[in-house]
Amino acid sequence: MFDAEPFPEEEESEARLKILVPIKRVADPENANKVKVSADGTQVTSEGLEWAINPFDEWSLEAALRLTENRAEKKRTGEIIIVGIGPNDDGMMRTLRSALAKGAERGILVEADDASLDSSVVAKILAKIAEKESPDVVFLGKQTADGDSNVAGTITAEHLGWPLVNYATQITVADGGFTIKRELDTGVQTVSVKTPCVLTSSDRILHPSSVKNGITPDDFAYPESDHARTAPLRDIMKAKSKPFETITLDSLGIEAETTVEYTQFELPPARSGETTYVESVDELVQKLHGDAKVI
Amino acid sequence: MHSYYPEDLLAHAVNRYKADLRDMRFLMFEQFNLQDLLGKAPFGDWDQENIEMVISEIYKFATSVLGPLNQIGDEHGCKVVDGSVITPEGFKDAWAKLYEAGWRTVAVSPEFGGMGSPATIGILTDELLSGANTAFNMYPGLAMGAAEVVGHFGSDRQKKLFVQRMLDGRWGGTMCLTEPHAGSDVGASTTTAKKNEDGTYSIKGTKIYISGGDHDLSFDDNIVHLVLARIDGAVAGTKGLSLFIVPKRRVDDDGKNLRDNDVRVVSIEHKMGINGSATCVLSFGEDDECLGELIGEVEHHGMRQMFKMMNFARIGVGIQGLAVASSAYLNALEYARDRKQGSSVKDWKDPSAPRVPIIEHPNIRKDLLEMKAKVEGIRALIVKLSTHQDRETALAGKDDASAAYHKGQINLLTPLVKAYSSDEGFEICAKAIQVYGGAGYLRDHPVEQYCRDAKIFSIYEGTNAIQSLDLVGRKLGQAGGANTQAFLGDIQKFISANKDHELFADAIKQLQKAHEAVGGTVMLFLGWFQSGFMDRIPLVSERFLKMMSELAIGWLLLEQAVLAKEKLADVSDTHPDHAFYTGKIHGAIYFAKNILPTVVGTAKVISLADTSPNEIPDAAFGI
């Protein structure tokens, strides 16, 4: 554990955590009804979508911010590098800038077509950037709200040969790494991991005392909220002037060769909106379990 | 800390606020081309990207922090405990988050710690904050209005001591005009100020209807009241009034609270709506210990100074009307798409026809389209006004003639924004209840609260009758009528350029007729003024304000529609913008053909010059 007392200058610089946080922009889940499938059914069209940060990435960014700050004194104590992969358009830039506005130190955009990306290509890119930047942590959302593949973090760790901890719900900075609680179907598992490592998290990371970094006092409680922090006005205005780099796949020596081929997309069937009234809980359970087979 | 509220109140709170950010973007960057002013002085720090980011972050804040507190504030209201106002549960936390995020100072000058955005961004910020929680937003809104007055008229010392503290949440602020016998007739005020040897004044009197007159929100537990009072020996009426800074607690020059300043909360009012906002009766100087200082150290300029705040507040009330009406409409729309009742009118002979969502019923569609056209038209009118403000700011000192044109339009449009938006805002909320049917009358849905909250908008900050007299008696003739001529000229230009439009020629014909009706009525009024028929004006001025507002809105909606038609050519029909632009076209045509003809009818009514309300004896009104 770090000492809770302020560090002398030089020690503090040694202790600065450096975290790479990949950010994907996805069709705004609040407006998911605007998502459309192309006429031939082979792709989801992105035309005219309202873009938003992938909510899972928003949570991993929140965790990374908590790891690299003294919240009680409102000071940044580490470094976060945002990585976006995709087209260099307004939706992408707004998503990345809003991450910078929340506190990340700098950003990288790897320009690529959405259609030429899958989890495998993304993991290659992230591993390449991690090799270049040597962060202590690559911190991903456990999945994206659009593809739901849930593997980019795992493949990235494999490429790097780094340990991986998925589904982190509580993180405590420990000597040379972290003690992490993971919430699984079977219970809560506590693991220790050394840096450098790859982490993924879920929404439980928003809990007021989910992250103990030894710098923000341990008794400090983040606000009870279903949402990650929002960027204050002053920091939105500053985001424009933070270092930002745009690079190409070529410059990383990566070919965008996807391993997954999507053959067919279908929109979920429209709901009938019919209402069925039930007389008792037993009947409700019967309907949900026996007829609708949803429980 | 002892809680005055049931446990778990906050845990069950839900947001019902909705706003249309696409329409805001359309106004800023497609219709009124705000981007022309960005990236250079005085808006050098601003560009389209950070504006959109700010608006979307504020919307998140509005829906996640303020929205869930709206019903709590309504149902639990404010309380007076030991002589102090306790605001509803959650308000204090929301205040802290609001100022931490900085949303109140988006458009505030950097001189006072703000970000100096165009006024338009401040206006849209206010829509989002007011719409999510009208009652809450009054506390910071009034503090800001009062700070603007001190910032504008205060001495250097007063600016330094008060303004930033009132803008960053440390201190609250109010405006204290009304007294039991001095409401609309503010010149009848009896609060007195007696000059002391050290230059301060001893204030004594009672003020009523003071919004945010006391609260527990400000970080440093102080509230700066701006109090209209008459210095001993000053003349009667409004000309004898002076404006004083009267803090709840006396402060030293470093802003440290020294002692209680003898400002007492006598009681708070129990109201129809905005229950989360404490409406106070305040008593100043009961123990002769209430000290105030003269703003800017000039005597008898109180009304002029207060008008600065009044204009700001009047536009603010227009925004309140828009804000709740917009959310009422969007909630009603969602309900109409979901609620099934009855079969399609096309199947009226078939009793076994499937039930359809009520949005398929023509009368509901008509209500929804009218609400849509009015909400978007009012928003366009307000943003038109704010872009005049921004252009005036950008042109001041560079092109005085153009700046004067914009200034003139601001003056002319302010009463329209205040009165039309507040009258129609209330009507739109009522119509939203109607769309819900019986469900809308219940507290399970947000629209009945919107309706109750909205009623006050047509009353405070100068009743809408006063707005209409301000328009007809003062604004129409201002600058020798040049502002009115410029306004009518702008609309005529649009009509001439588009009168043969392939799609909108019919609609624009209605605009032309409404334009002639408004122009003709202005000439009629001129004749009445010249003939001394003053007593006729108050009988019709509200009607005229409505006519002129609807002319302006018809124009702005048709301007949108012409633009939308052009843009549609480049948008595939699966693109969400396709529906957006199509909506603009239908809204404008509906307004032109269903509302603008009533402008012509109203002109006819006014021309009849009926004076029966003036002629009927009082006793003849009834028992």
Short characterization:
The complex is a heterodimer of chains A (295) and B (623). Chain A contains 8 helices and 16 strands.
Q: Strand content of the residues of chain A, in percent?
A: 25-35%
The number of helical runs of chain B is 18
Secondary structure tally: strands of chain A: 16
Strand order of the largest sheet of chain B: 4-5-12-7-6
Quaternary structure type: heterodimer
CATH architecture assignment name of chain A: 3-Layer(aba) Sandwich
Counting DSSP E segments of at least 2 residues, the number of strands of chain B comes to: 14
- Within CATH, the superfamily of chain A carries the name HUPs
Uncertain stretches of chain B = none
Question: Uncertain segments of chain A of ≥5 residues (pLDDT<50)?
Answer: 1-13
Structural class of the secondary structure composition of chain A?
Answer: alpha/beta
**C-alpha end-to-end distance of chain B:** 55 Å
General description of the model:
- Helix content of chain A is 27%, strand content 26%.
- Chain A contains 8 helices and 16 strands.
- Chain A is of the alpha/beta class and 295 residues long.
- Chain B is 54% helix and 12% strand.
- Chain B has a 5-stranded mixed beta barrel with strand order 4-5-12-7-6. Chain B has a two-stranded antiparallel sheet with strand order 1-2.
- In chain B, helix 6 packs antiparallel against helix 7 (156-167) and helix 10 (400-436) packs across helix 13 (482-498).
- By secondary structure, chain B is of the alpha+beta class.
- In chain B, strand 1 (79-81) and strand 2 (84-86) form a beta hairpin.
- Chain B has helices at residues 21-31, 48-66, 70-76, 91-101, 119-132, 134-153, 156-167, 302-338, 362-395, 400-436, 447-455, 464-475, 482-498, 505-531, 537-568, 576-594, 596-607, 612-615, and strands at residues 79-81, 84-86, 171-176, 192-195, 201-211, 222-231, 241-247, 249-251, 257-260, 263-268, 279-284, 291-294, 340-343, 355-357.
- Chain B has a domain at 480-612.
- The longest helix of chain B is centred in the middle third of the chain and has 37 residues, at 302-338.
- The A-B interface holds A 34, 36, 45, 47-50, 90, 93-94, 97-98, 101, 223, 225-227, 230-234, 236-237, 239-240, 273, 275 and B 45, 47, 49-50, 52-54, 57, 60-61, 64, 97, 100-103, 105-106, 115, 338, 340, 357, 571-572, 574-578.
